[in-house]
From TrEMBL:
Pfam families: NMO
CDD domains, sorted: NPD_like (cd04730)
Name this protein carries in UniProt: Nitronate monooxygenase domain-containing protein
Organism in which the protein naturally occurs: Somion occarium
UniProt KW Membrane keyword: no
Record has Oxidoreductase as a keyword: yes
Entry-linked InterPro entries: Aldolase_TIM (IPR013785), NMO (IPR004136)
Keyword tags: Flavoprotein, FMN, Oxidoreductase
SUPFAM superfamilies from the UniProt entry: Inosine monophosphate dehydrogenase (IMPDH) (SSF51412)
Amino acid sequence: MAFASTAELTVAVSGSGAFGFFGAGFDTSAQLKETIQTVRTKLNLPKGVPVPMGFGFIGWILEMTESSDDPRLATILDELPVAIWFAFGVDLGKYVAQVRAHDAKRDHKTVVFVIVNSATDAVRAANEWGVDVIVAQGNEAGGHGGSISPPLFDLLPDVLAALPNGPPVVAAGGVATGAQVASLLALGVSGVVLGTRFLFTNECRYTDQIKSVLVDADLRATQRSLCFDEVNRTNYWPPLHDGRAIANQIWDDFTSGLSLEERLKKHDESNAKGEKDRLVIWAGVGAGLTKTISPAADVVKELHEGTLKAIKATSALLG
């Protein structure tokens, strides 16, 4: 959600009874502090009080920023977010250790989330790194993840079986409705993560042009490939990782065999003209299940009510 989340979206989600994360991306420390101050102001929280939100960090970006003259992680930890989320790095454990060391100095507990794409990854994150929450991400997820990750409904049983006494596991990937949330809870997860569903909100940073593309998307509208990162000039992902995005002309250029040089030229020319056919639009399979743009608070309410409705309907089967 690095290119889609805003302080307003985080506030709307957390303020509606869910838990909002902000994708840190390449934001500077000053920009991230401004984001958290906006959240504090809107939620009427004074400095020194933990903020009910999380920040998401990408491993390979941290490799660049934490050795620069503007390291981000310690700055954000000083601002007391309740949670930190790590994903997509070859050595995320060192950042988990950094959070623990930082917390120990100020007698504070930051909840650490880490994305995994296999049971092996989950065991390592739980047993070696001591993370607090495992995020099992299926290949239906939008944005980036494991290129060979199984679908969520196959990944989850494997992860849960590998961690019978481990930390809580939450599910991510392709989820857009309350009924889906209910089904995942029935599988045994402690919670469910949604990203793409919140692209369809007023508070999302995506432009109206991009949102119109998402509204028109169906369940076959996305593909996983590094071709989107290649034209976006962000192809720094660890091995066996790629990204899911709207399969527009970027995908067509790639599958037709055009060279990278040709694809970059077409992409840049199209974007310079303000066209929508070669925009990089990260989105999951679940994009095809949503057809309206609405306030984030309404989305949280809709998901909550849909989940309860599905749970009650399923409970009736036991009668």
